[in-house]
Input
Amino acid sequence: MFNYDIRNDKSLKEAIIHLVAFFDLFEYPLTGYEIWYYLDKPGQLSDLLKFLANDSPIIKQKNGFYFLAQREEIIITRQKRYNYTNRKLKIAKRFSYWFNLLPFIKTIAISNSIGAHNLREGSDIDFFIITSPNRIWLSRFLCAGLAKLLNRRPTKRNKQDKICLSFYITKDHLNLTDLKLPFNDPYFDYWIRSLILLYNKKGIYQQFLIANKLAKGELLPLKHPKNSLVDKLEKLTKKWQLQIMSPDLKKEMNNSDGVVVNDQVLKLYLGDRRREFLDKFNCKINEIFQKIN
Output
């Protein structure tokens, strides 16, 4: 997140520029409400809107959207993607209904959409899943098997509207701080804030938000399931999945930002681009402030 002092107009202005510039990487202009939300609600929304009304050579506004100067065309891009996302959301809801019937699945959300309703037409649909403790491997086995059976797994040739099942965590690993890049990881911060919730059992998603300091409240005590037969199935499905894991994933396993494999986290992204986005963002910000100064 971008630090600022709400009492300091210059500090707030710079934070807004940082925010709008970051979302510009994804061709996503922001509404006034979204700026207020992503800046952790600095005071009253009405006061922020008045602040945004001040003329700026860097941030422009049209039809309720705020964007970098000379980037007005991304308004049309956002509007197109809104329609794509609505279609994908209907698909995801229908498909996740079956996942929700599995007793070990506690939360299902659409991920990798920086900005609400910002999915590309040809993209697959990334799921983020929270499971019971000690049931992550069995949960992945059942979810991936069902997706395969229903011909919903993405392939190199066809990803559009397919279901990508590459990120699972357990209830005893809700805090994702250890998965962030060192020093600065704006993508990860906004990745969490842009999750689109599909299913939520017993308030687990709220616990996830509390664990990641995105909501206030207390974390509830955990109960670890104990069932000798299911425990054996968990171990068997883990062993089998590790055996058939692709050579590329095995090579990157626990050696890269995108591939983390253990009994609490399964993050299987060979193409984790957070460092690339951070570099592009830093270049864009340097360019902007060189013009200002």
User: Anything to note?
Assistant: The beta strands are 30-31, 59-62, 65-68, 105-111, 125-131, 163-170, 196-200, 259-261, 265-268. The radius of gyration is 21 Å. The chain is about 45% helix and 15% strand. Residues 9-72 form one domain.
